[in-house]
Amino acid sequence: MSQGFCTAYTPAPVKLSELRAKTDRQLHGLVHSRLDVGLEFAVLAEVEASSGDRKYAERSFGRADQALAEVQRLVPVLNEKHRRGLDPKITELREALDRLGRIHEFPRTQTRVLLKRCRWHLSVPSGRV
User: Which residue has the higher pLDDT, 1 or 128?
Assistant: First the structure.
């Protein structure tokens, strides 16, 4: 190797930590936007249910539930700081879906199936999946 190449080389740990920080920021943005979408669909489901349009309300509810499922799948890979920042919004979406599900008896299949998978995955020792 030439000396010029070696001086321009960034050590792997530094490069990896920079890449991880960028990935964390992008994941945080993605999760934040999915939560916004989920909350918007939850509001839309409430409006549609109130106007008597159950078919569209169920579809909007399903999309909100799917957004929550996607968020719950991504949250474990975020760093602790980003997770804590998202907790209030996750709780808000989960409570909105719980309330809508109770009041209008909408099914919550997406989240229920995902939670079972997440619990299983978290209970399996590292490297055994």
Answer: 1
Q: Residue 85: which of 17, 24, 128, 4 has the closest Cα? A: 24
Is the CB of residue 60 less than 8 Å from the CB of residue 40?
Answer: no
- In the chain the first and final C-alpha atoms are separated, in Å, by 40
CB 83 within 8 A of CB 33: no
Look at phi and psi of residue 52 and say left if phi exceeds 0, alpha if psi is from -120 to 50, else beta: left
Query: What are the sequence ranges of the domains in the chain?
Result: 11-105
Q: Mean pLDDT for the chain?
A: 81
* Residue recorded with tokens 């619990």: 119
What are the residue ranges of helices labelled H in the chain? 3-8, 12-50, 54-74, 80-104, 109-123
Give the pLDDT band (50/70/90) at residue 116.
very low
Q: Residue 14: is it exposed, middle or buried by C-beta count within 10 angstroms (0-12/13-18/19+)?
A: exposed
